[in-house]
Amino acid sequence: xxxxxxxxxxxVLVALGAIELCMLLRAILSFFGDPESVLLSxxxxxxxxxxxxxxxxxxxxxxxxxxxxxxxxLLTYVVLALVGGLLPAVT
Length: 91
Prior knowledge:
With 91 residues, the chain is mostly helical. It has one domain (2-86). It has helices at 2-32, 38-58, 71-86. Helix 1 (2-32) crosses helix 2, helix 1 packs antiparallel against helix 3 and helix 2 (38-58) packs across helix 3 (71-86).
């Protein structure tokens, strides 16, 4: 049973790391990359399903519309980092 928990924790950590990397690439490529880039399209396809619940939740706050930052994107990144940090360190 312990082996299954370790395998599950590692799988979740790898998945979180991959999503965080795609989010970072998405942020960088959206400024400097080609909007028609295959890599940027892939990053959007991977990250948008994760960001969408935060976008829907925060769309209720109209005051956030005037902020020039993508708050749901930033909040998603912070939550993913926190979840990754809360998982036990598995060796």
